[in-house]
Structures are given as structure tokens and as C-alpha cells.
Amino acid sequence: MTRSIVQTNLAPAPVGPYNQAIVASGKMAFLSGQIALEASTGAIVGEGDVVAQTEQVMANLKAVLEASGASFASVVKTGVFLKDMNDFAAVNAVYSKYFDEANAPARACVEVARLPKDVLVEIDCIAIVE
Questions:
Q1: What is the average pLDDT value for the chain, to the nearest integer?
Q2: Which helix (H) or strand (E) holds 60?
Q3: Which strands form 28-34's sheet, in the order they lie side by side?
Q4: Using one digit for the tens of pLDDT, what is the confidence trace for 62-85?
Q5: Topology of the domain comprising 3-128
Q6: Are the C-beta atoms of 80 and 109 separated by less than 8 Å?
Q7: Which residues are catalytic?
Q8: I need a labelling partner for 11 at 20 to 30 A (CA). Which of 41, 44, 62, 90 fits?
Q9: Burial letters for 85-104: b for 16+ Cβ neighbours within 10 Å, e otherwise?
Q10: Could you tell me if 33 and 123 are in contact, meaning their C-beta atoms sit under 8 angstroms apart?
Q11: Domain ranges of the chain
Q12: Distances from the Cα of 45 to the Cα of 59, 65, 128, angstroms
């Protein structure tokens, strides 16, 4: 099994000992969780606004997916981590712009005590490389 590290300047650099994504055997892309950081500055986008943060998270995921040779259409699994489960509907409204209900990936969604940099949402995913 081969393993390739994925790095793009169009998404935030990792803030710890991990990579934006790993492509395994040229077939599966495993993306690290993305939070609402602006790629060029590292600043949090949408402080206190879960909709704005989710939009930035999805933009970051898109950049890493594309750098991995994948797209939202090839995502098979996502993990959604929320600071407050009361934000579920607002996050779903943004999420549904990227995944249509008929072909949406499998998903887990959990409320967590705290996220990096105290953001409101983090999303990771696994995709098939196209």
C-alpha cells in the first residue's frame, strides 16, 4: 500500500503533527478535520457565527479534496463535530449545499466539549480519488 501526503496552500496549514490529507494506494483520500480558518492568514472566519464558520470549513475541505484528486461527489464518509448540537439545523443547511440528499455520504455528527481555537464546527471526510 502506498501513501501520499497532500498539502495545499488553498487550505489552512496543519496546526499540529498531522497532514491536511493522506491518499492511500492512490484510491482513498483521508482528510483531516477542517475548522473555520482562512488559509492565507490563519485567522478564524465568522467568530461566533456557525453558518459563516461552516461555509469556511466546506471551502477548506473543497481545497483539500481537489488537491487530493477528489471532490464532494466522491466523499463516502464525513464526521461533523459541533460545539453545540443546537447548531445542527444551521450546519445542515450549509452542508446540504455540498451534498445532495440522494447521494450524500455516510455521516456521524456529535457534540463535543471543545474544538481547536474554540471554533463552533469541525468536519473531516474520506473520499474516493477520481
A1: 97
A2: helix 50-68
A3: 3-6, 21-24, 28-34, 121-128, 75-82, 106-111
A4: 999 999 999 999 999 999 999 999
A5: 60s Ribosomal Protein L30; Chain: A; (3.30.1330)
A6: yes
A7: 109
A8: 90
A9: eebeebbeebbeebbeeeee
A10: yes
A11: 3-128
A12: 11, 20, 29
